[in-house]
Write a structure and sequence with these properties.
By secondary structure, the chain is an alpha+beta fold. It is built from 5 helices and 9 strands, in the order E-E-E-H-H-H-H-E-E-E-E-E-E-H. The chain has a 5-stranded antiparallel sheet, covered by helices on one side. Helix 2 runs antiparallel to helix 3.
């Protein structure tokens, strides 16, 4: 990702929202981003594509189970767009909650942070690499850009 960077690491875990919030882990910022609501024109295209793929699955497979599996696979693949995502920044870590689970990273593990027009990538890697897509947590701004940048800047490791 291009843009600014500053020194900032995350783990992938499946846990509930309340697991990351303890008495010594104060919530600094919590927000939701729902891309389908923010981009209604894209939502129309996505729904049309799901309908078209469902129709093709009906013709090709001629099996209700195969059609249901196809629709569920499409919705799962598009869940970040179709369903709200919840982001939480605490004094100890940063988390992104989606249908697929939770990505969480402790501030002490952060090595780099990259800002782009849509969000901030919090990375455990010391420099950019092809592994970047599979590591770390991406925090979408939604309508909280300034607040997210301020919180990350304040909480990221100074020596990371």
């Amino acid at each position: 990702m291009s843009g600014h960077h500053f020194e900032c690491c995350f783990y992938y875990v499946n846990a509930s929202l309340t697991d990351s919030i303890g008495t010594n882990n104060d919530v600094v910022l919590r927000w939701q981003v729902h891309l389908a609501k923010e981009q209604p024109r894209k939502l129309i295209v996505v729904i049309a594509a799901i309908i078209a793929m469902t129709a093709m699955a009906c013709v090709w497979f001629r099996s209700p189970i195969a059609v249901i599996v196809t629709v569920l696979a499409l919705i799962g693949a598009l869940s970040d767009f179709l369903l709200p995502m919840t982001f939480v920044i605490t004094t100890k870590n940063v988390s992104a909650y989606t249908l697929a689970g939770k990505r969480m990273m402790a501030w002490e593990d952060v090595r780099k942070c990259y800002i782009d027009e849509s969000g901030v990538k919090i990375s455990p890697l010391p420099r950019a690499s092809r592994l970047e897509a599979y590591r770390g947590v991406y925090l979408r701004f939604g309508d909280r850009k300034e607040e997210v940048i301020a919180a990350v800047t304040r909480l990221k490791p100074k020596d990371g």
